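Researcher: Quick one. three chains, 725 residues in total.
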Amino acid sequence: MLVADKVLMKGNEALAEAAIRAGCRFYAGYPITPQNEVPEYMSGHMFAAGGQFIQAESEIAAINMLYGAGGAGIRVMTSSSSPGISLKQEGISYLAGAEVPAVIVNMARGGPGLGGIQPAQSDYFQATKGGGHGDYRLLVLAPESVQEMVDLVDLAFDRADHYRTPVMLLGDAIVGQIMEPVALPEPVDPAALPAKPWATTGTGGTRRKNIINSLYLNPDHLEQHNLRLQAKYAVMDAAERRWTSYQVDDAETVVVAYGSMARIARRAVDMARAAGVKVGIVRPISLWPFPAEGFAASALPVAKRFLAVEMSHGQMVEDVRLAINCRLPVHFFGRAGGVVPTPDEVLAAINRVSGDALQVGHLPAHTDGMLGGDAHE
Amino acid sequence: MPGRVVFNQERCKGCELCTTVCPPKIVVMQETRNSHGYRPATVLDMAKCTGCALCAQVCPDVVIEVYRTAPAAARRASTAGETGEGWGC
Amino acid sequence: MNKVFERPAALTDVATHYCPGCTYGIAHRMIAEALDGLQLTGRAVGIASVGCTVLAYDYLECDFQQAAHGRAPAVATGVKRARPDSIVFTIQGDGDLAAIGTAEIVHAAARGENITVFFLNNTIYGMTGGQMAPTTLVGQRSTTSPAGRDASRAGRPIKVSEMLATLDGPAYIERVAMDKPANIARAGRAIRKALANQAAGLGFSLVEILSACPTNWGMTPKEAIARLTSEVVPYFPLGVYRDITAERGQASQNGGEQA
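Model:
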């Protein structure tokens, strides 16, 4: 890509611009650090693109505005950060139940509660195991760079429309706030997008009425509806797994990290390799569906152990254990509350687990020794 | 005059609101800065201070303490022609 | 000489995080003066909201609970119902009270909860960097109304005092301003009355305090005070919008007397 084709942009702003170029024509949001640049960018540029921007009265109002606009058939997006995403959970459940496409962006921050404004990855459970009520799944995509975020925005809108389902982009304060060179895609004309015959555009007297709804009082009907949703999720599960692998072919220790944490971990992997440690990294890009294939024995032929590294107290690590059916030890290193681990800290964790005396467990941030626990070797 | 004000210079954020309400216009901003980088407020011509406390009322950071001679003592002070009397409180 | 003005005991002796010229500091001081003057500090429980006043619990010498954005009136309801002898007050900004918290404030007022609400209205979102608020004036620039608030897209400001005064529940609603010493003194009396009402069991009291935000208005403190006078007060007129405390029982003993 020619240098002249790239623009230096802040993650939040690139995300907003990418959404507009992907044909998004409705954005509703609410101020919350660290994603304020998204509504601020949209407040000017969305109108210029012929779309609608609303600073809603709350995150709850915003997700319900999305339900309306999305149900009426246009591409819609909201953004927020952890506490605001909690508020949106009911609305997300409605989007899933009523099969309304939407893109929801979480620039995660420290929690729980009001927490802090610095980056964290403590919303993994919320994104992938719920966090609203009912049997539904969100397609969850985790970018590690501004460029990847721009690319995934386009994919998110496309998949949301394709499956008629809400899609979440799970970022963090780092990827939202950094400025990086980015190549923006060509704008999509919303009129050129596939039609949505199910949308509430008005019958015009020419078609049957459309109803956007998630209420099925008859339990047999609700069961059938749920079975349809589950069949859809099964298709998504098989088709939407995304990940990257780095230096895993001869890796005995496999680091697992996503988003900004993966960039830090990759640096630590390089540092470890320079010192002769055989370590690689698997980076999930789709958090749901979790890319189990990236962890298969065939993909990691000499792996002896995993080290999950997160800006949390251990959320994705559980999916790593599930993905490998606990066939190998899975260690964990993480810091939360908005504290970002350094490459040196990750390197220290790699060295600890790659030594001879192996123990399974959580590695505390500041100790040199190992936690007690059952050895799995 | 019967008044005296004391400024906690380290707490002053240099907003200058006190300078706008002083009736004899004796509150000014210093040229030097406190350790936070703000230029704090002060009074150079304390003799004109009436102790009205308007500066203190408007200060968002409670920087100012205000002292005032009781009226009878103030009258004695003014007829005696001295401006320094009554300051040792 | 006698000391005639000093920091009230209920006001913690720390520097605040508020910007130079932010009038929130004046409001905090007057709340502290009222708590001390009415001897309520020991019974007081403050509810900190989300916005510039999120750290209010560091500035007042009483118990505090930190509430989620907009929910302070509901949290206050819970505290007051659990501990009726407590003096429960909230400090909320215009985003907290008039955007995400509109349901909670309406229903606390309608229920006539015996609490005190201090509504600091500076016509902008401060803490998050200057976005438009429900109280932002038409034509006023903000980071989400960069060309000025457009009434056709974003509607018009909400007048909270007038709106809540239509309810039968509240006992006392007054709007005051922090622009001139006389108005500041009036604000101090309203703050004291709003707390005295609660102590006398007279019902829901709210004081809307028009405030300056130099940083997010893009002005110096002096310019911001001038804008309060010339633009904000004319749109949000000062005055008492509801006062049925006299009917409700004996008037609050010391309300309106202390400058």
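Chain A is about 35% helix and 20% strand.
Researcher: Thanks, that's what I needed.
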